[in-house]
Amino acid sequence: MAKIAFMGAGSTVFAKIVFGDCMCAEPLKGATIALYDIDAKRLRESEMMLENLNVTLKADMKLEAFLGVEQRRKALRGADYVVNAIQVGGYKPSTVIDFKIPRKYGLRQTIGDTLGIGGIFRALRTMPVLLDFAHDMEKVCPHALLLNYSNPISMHMMGILRGSSIRAVGLCHSVQHCAPTLLNHFGMKPKKLQWKVAGINHQGWLLEITDDGRDLYPEIRAACKKAKTAGKLPKNDLVRLEMLLRFGYYVTESSIHFSEYVPWFIKSRYPELLEEFNIPLDEYPRRCVKQIKDWKKMRNDLVHKKDLIHARSGEYASHIISAMETDEPYKFGGNVMNTGLIPNLPARACVEAPCLADRSGVTPLYVGELPEQCAALNRTAINPQILTTEAVLTGRKDYVYQAAMLDPHTAAELSIDDIVSMCDELIAAHGKLMPEFKK
Fold first, then answer.
1. Residue 71 sits in which domain range?
2. DSSP code for 376
3. In b/e form, how buried is each residue of 167-182, taking b as 16+ CB within 10 angstroms?
4. Secondary structure (DSSP) of 399-439
5. Is residue 37 part of a domain?
6. pLDDT digit string (tens) for 24-79?
């Protein structure tokens, strides 16, 4: 039977989704689950939760728990699949630092986990740990597939796939919800919906959306333009709908995220834009505080509930693993290196493209060229992603500065001198969580 290792198993809610899904999948019942974390309390809570779920769902899984760096290889040894969901540095101190220091320089963020200065520094402290995982996998489970959920996915996948020999794919939730969200805005209910998404993570483009072969985009664009004129666009998605009108295509990630990926919406010179496009600054720190508070309330029900139940979700992980175990193909949106899949994006980029999973592994599918305006916007995000990856792989600090200088939002707000000073202050504040940069 398959062995599935979960790195960052202290994320109890997500562990329930991933392994609850696996326990509901008939081909995966009886598998071994290896839980790994560096936090003993959170690891034990996830283990207790899954023990209850294992009984309720009659999944006959074998559960093992491994604590600390010294047991990491034991957790990985012989694994067929490795799911990663770690967050290096957590809310405190790292997320607080990522928001507090840039704010001092006048640089404001909403989420800070994918691009921008927050995304760059999250990658700088997380990618080295993921490379350690990958190098352990090379030794103890060289044929395993890594399913990476840790943001920023594009940068992490570039680092893993360039810095190791393992098989890996990056997974995100936004692709599944893109088309249904857009259709819901305008009350459209197609009977035979088909759609195609490709680009980069959190900036994938809904390239096609049809109902029984009929292109829905003309109707969607007309409805969007009419709603904007009437002041009736949905308030929670104004940024993405503006991009639809300006660039012709809808993007995968939420307006709150997307507002900080481009230079047009969060601008100190035009503070009125925040209200016009309903952009909440410092949103991610608020979410962290709420999640910590909510976890205290829900811990008992989730961890100690003997009759805990679960219904299989649309989360990709269990479906990919099932497809590889049974050889029944499963199509999904994955993050992989651009091996000619999207010709007008760089070869060193990690792209989000349709992929097929079966017994042979994960096979990315050819997309073709993106509309040029869409590719152009993707390239502005890819530039800092590549340079951040280079900073980790080479240890060159100047690549950190250059990544920040090339980030669209950062460059639109700060001078070069301020960008360098801010980066130096962030590097010092994160301390030992940063890579060892060359002198």
1. 3-93+115-172
2. H
3. bbbbbbebbbebbebb
4. HHHHHHHH-HHHHHH--HHHHHHHHHHHHHHHGGGS-----
5. yes
6. 999 999 999 999 999 999 999 999 999 999 999 999 999 999 999 999 999 999 99
Contact status, residue 373 vs residue 246, Cβ threshold 8 Å: no
Q: What is the mean pLDDT of residues 102-118?
A: 97
Q: What total of structural domains would you count in the chain?
A: 1
Q: Which of 149, 203, 207 is nearest to 409 (CA)?
A: 203
3-class DSSP state for residue 364?
strand
Q: What is the number of residues in the chain?
A: 439
Query: Strands, E, within 54-180: which ranges?
Result: 62-67, 81-84, 145-148, 167-170
- CA proximity to 409, closest of 100, 107, 102: 107
pTM for the structure as a whole: 0.96
435 cis-preceded (ω within 30 degrees of 0): no
What CATH number has the domain bearing residue 130?
3.40.50.720
Tokens of 220: 């969607």
State the amino acid at position 48 in one-letter form. Answer: M
Q: How far apart are CA 362 and CA 372, in angstroms?
A: 28
**Is 201 part of any domain?**
no
For residue 8, give the 3-state DSSP assignment: coil
Q: Is residue 40 part of a domain?
A: yes
Active-site residue identified among 135, 143, 156, 173: 173
Could you give the angle at which helices 238-247 and 372-394 cross, rounded to 10 degrees?
120
Using a 10 angstrom Cβ sphere, with 0-12 exposed, 13-18 middle and 19 or more buried, the burial of residue 438 is exposed
How many beta carbons lie within 10 A of that of residue 246, not counting itself? 10
Does residue 271 belong to any structural domain of this protein? no
Active site residue 173: yes
| Range 388-397 burial, b when 16+ CB lie within 10 A, else e | bbbbbbeebb
**Alpha-helical runs (H) found in 174-315:** 174-185, 217-229, 238-247, 255-258, 272-276, 283-304
At 324 the three-state DSSP class reads helix
Distance CA 155, CA 383 (A): 11
Express each pLDDT in 118-173 by its tens digit. Answer: 999 999 999 999 999 999 999 999 999 999 999 999 999 999 999 999 999 999 98
Is 194 in a helix, a strand, or coil? strand
- The runs of H, that is alpha helices, within 29-173 are 40-56, 72-76, 96-104, 116-140, 153-163
Q: Are 112 and 103 in contact, with CB atoms under 8 Å apart? A: no
Which amino acid does the sequence have at 87? Q
